[in-house]
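To close the section, here is one more complete example, presented without commentary so you can practise reading it yourself. The ligand is nicotinamide-adenine-dinucleotide.
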Amino acid sequence: MILVTGSNGQIGVDLLQALADRYGGMHIVAADLEGSNSRTPPDVRFEPLDVRSVDRVEELLTTNPIDTIYHLAGILSASGEQNPDLCWDVNIGGLRNVLRAANERSLRVFWPSSIAVFGPHTVREEAPQSARTDPDTIYGITKATGERLCRYYASHHALDVRSIRFPGVISYSAPPGGGTTDFAVEMFFGAIKDGAYDCFVSADTRLPMMYMPDAVKSVLDLMGADSDALSVRTSYNVAAFSFSAGELAEAIQKYVPDFTCTFHPDFRQEIADTWPGSIDDSVARADWNWIPEFDLDRMVRDMLTHIGQSLGVPVDISKVE
Ligand code: NAD
Ligand code: SER
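Output:
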């Protein structure tokens, strides 16, 4: 049986659906602070969980025959910077509770890290797998610490814990939850609903990004890989494409020609400025055959199609101005 923490979040909603499609909803327990929502797949049981409570984590694992945990519960970069203590308690306290309980029961664990582990002194382009991690945000510090905690449990206790350093993840099913890369999702909704969006980072801010179907695929591929093939037990770089905020606006304008985007950077600009513009994922490609399927234009067309449908404002993606 599978436990997914943070199941109501941006990644949780789509990963839960993919796991339910693959393994059947009755084999999955979804857990988050708040109750289940309309996106929880049928047959998936919901359990309230605050990952900071070691007793509640223990209770869930004692009362359910869980063998694998997808531990997604977390506080993202922008929210983290506004509440550093909460970010530490959830991201590190929660991870420690999950790893300790998983270790006692020899469970498998997936945990997402982030490009936020890199810092202002990391090489800006094609940041290598082995690049020094010297994050400058509390979120990045929790992710870099979490990566070392995962490797500690893997090397000292042979715990099968696997991790991916996600770029900014773009999706339409559930709203992003307080990250610096949220602009890349909000821009689509602004373009279709209002024909306009005021972006909170500058037009030339370039970051690594990935479309949700590839993010989900990366998790399933990594969790399906042969353990002996995995040379990284901190966290794997995975990449898909990079773009600046201005380039994304132009890519959307190809299909929504009247869309106007303005740029007024706020505190999130400083966070974005510490992250690399692209990362090198050659180790993930070599170890477990990672390969993304979506490029920028294909992602843009898919996002516009789905968001247009859900808002009742269809976008004609065959028309390119
Ligand atoms: P999200 O904010 O959309 O969802 C996180 C979920 O965690 C929320 O549903 C929230 O209710 C839950 N949560 C928060 N505190 C909790 C607690 N104390 N106990 C239990 N649940 C709690 O985030 P997401 O985008 O789905 O991210 C999931 C994971 O992936 C996080 O660890 C995040 O750092 C990581 N990640 C996300 C991205 C991205 O672009 N979305 C990129 C890199 C890494
Ligand atoms: N998308 C995430 C954020 O912006 C990166 O981990 O916080």
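Once you have examined the tokens, check your reading against these statements. The chain has a mean pLDDT of 97. The first helix runs from residue 10 to 23.
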